[in-house]
């Protein structure tokens, strides 16, 4: 995958994850996310969007590089709602495809229902 293609896919992934972030989200260790805030999530290596302040965006580039080289990898991204609830996104590359899952179960105001989707 060339540099232009990487930038294109990086842009698409960022748009999907952060534009839709407050309405849907990912899975993996969700029960512990609520107990700490954006700074702590960023400290654990998650890509975090805290009302436009984005931390660890370089982790997304690393995920794309790994996928480009056929390396199985996983990336967790967390959006925080105005109320401080986490909405979690997970990208998982299995060597052939990228699975995108979302979890908004910790968002008190999730509509229409709280769910984990794949």
Strand order in the largest sheet = 2-1-3-4-5-6
- Name the helix and strand elements from N-terminus to C-terminus, one letter apiece: HHHEEHEEEE
Integer tally of domains: 1
Overall outline: globular
Tally of DSSP β-strands: 6
Secondary structural class: alpha+beta
Helix content: 25-40%
Strand content: 25-35%
Rounded to an integer, what's the Rg over CA atoms?
14 Å
Number of helices: 4
The termini sit apart by: 25 Å
Main β sheet profile: 6 strands, mixed
Point out poorly predicted stretches: 20-32
Mean pLDDT: 78
Descriptive overview:
- The protein is of the alpha+beta class.
- It has one domain.
- It is built from 4 helices and 6 strands, in the order αααββαββββ.
- It has a 6-stranded mixed beta sheet with strand order 2-1-3-4-5-6.
- Strand 1 and strand 2 form a beta hairpin.
- The chain is globular.
- The protein starts with a helix and ends with a strand.
- 27% of the residues are buried.
Could you list some keywords that capture this structure?
single chain, 118 residues, alpha+beta, 6-stranded mixed β-sheet, 33% helix, 26% strand, globular
Itemize the secondary structure elements and their pairings.
Elements: H1 3-19, H2 30-33, H3 38-43, E1 47-50, E2 53-55, H4 57-68, E3 73-80, E4 86-93, E5 98-103, E6 116-117
Brief rundown of the structure:
33% of the residues lie in helices and 26% in strands.
């Amino acid at each position: 995958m060339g540099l232009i293609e990487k930038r294109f896919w990086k842009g698409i992934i960022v748009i999907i994850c952060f534009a839709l972030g407050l309405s849907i989200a990912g899975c993996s260790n969700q029960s512990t996310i609520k107990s700490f805030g954006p700074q702590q999530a960023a400290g654990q290596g998650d890509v975090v969007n805290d009302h436009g302040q984005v931390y660890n965006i370089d982790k997304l580039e690393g995920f794309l590089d790994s996928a480009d080289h056929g390396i199985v990898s996983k990336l967790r991204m967390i959006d925080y709602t105005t109320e401080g609830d986490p909405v979690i996104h997970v990208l998982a590359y299995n060597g052939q495809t990228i699975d995108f899952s979302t979890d908004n179960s910790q968002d008190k105001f999730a509509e229409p229902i709280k769910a984990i989707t794949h």
